[in-house]
Design the sequence.
């Protein structure tokens, strides 16, 4: 599996869950990988160590996705440390599940700052370094296209914005051979949304496969989009939701 040999990838929010699975899979496919993390240095270090033990190269960089200066600095450090940048995975994201009318301005700001402003900032910084033929992969959500889950109004709005950002940017950078795609997971078994959690039953019921997805399933789709076989896919919203939106 060397489809990404000599490539460098940056995965934001790569210390756990979907982001960690993506980082490990890109490394398995041959990429050198930088990950950002907000607070959990030990989890980020564990991801790096697992990649290194398997013979790969990885680095962890502290950067809260809501801090624009930290995000820009993380991109610069990734390039300085690993030498180049070919793949950006905008994975860092957050949700604060509650009724919209009870959501505070501070909570709204945090969801917006991480889920959409953070994507804007990381992508702008990355494009200054990205090689022609590069890949920008955004991690959106199936609720960015069809909303059936109460309590996720601001989250779904930001993921809808990620969808349109993907489509618009794909046209601006296409002349450089850079593709921009949006991977939209449905219910995936993670610490933030466990398959055994309080919110799980209605989410499982909404799927066609009657189960949560696994982080490795999302990582496999991201790895395909990052690789050479996906070179004619751009501006696409690739939903991986077990049939939730079917």
Sequence:
């Amino acid at each position: 599996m060397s489809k990404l040999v000599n490539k460098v990838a940056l995965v934001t929010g790569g210390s756990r869950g979907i982001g960690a699975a993506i980082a490990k899979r890109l490394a398995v496919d041959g990429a050198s990988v930088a990950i950002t993390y907000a607070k959990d240095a030990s989890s980020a270090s564990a991801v790096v160590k697992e990649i290194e033990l398997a013979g790969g190269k990885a680095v962890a960089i502290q950067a809260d996705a809501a801090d624009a200066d930290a995000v820009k600095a993380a991109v610069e450090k990734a390039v300085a440390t690993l030498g180049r940048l070919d793949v950006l995975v905008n994975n860092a994201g957050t949700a604060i599940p509650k009724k919209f009318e009870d959501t505070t301005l501070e909570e709204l700001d945090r969801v917006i700052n991480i889920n959409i402003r953070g994507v804007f900032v990381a992508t702008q910084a990355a494009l200054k370094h990205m090689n022609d033929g590069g890949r920008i992969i955004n991690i959106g959500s199936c609720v960015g296209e069809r909303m059936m889950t109460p309590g996720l109004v601001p989250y779904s709005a930001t993921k809808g914005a990620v969808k349109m950002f993907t489509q618009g940017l794909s046209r601006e950078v296409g002349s450089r051979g850079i593709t921009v795609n949006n991977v939209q997971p449905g219910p995936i078994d993670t610490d933030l949304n466990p398959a055994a959690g309080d919110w799980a039953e209605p989410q499982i019921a909404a799927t066609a496969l009657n189960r949560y997805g696994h982080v490795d399933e999302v990582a496999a789709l991201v790895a395909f989009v990052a690789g050479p076989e996906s070179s004619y896919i751009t501006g696409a919203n690739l939903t991986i939701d077990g049939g939730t939106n079917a």
Observations:
- The first strand starts at residue 8 and ends at 11.
- The beta strands are 8-11, 32-37, 58-62, 87-90, 135-139, 179-185, 237-240.
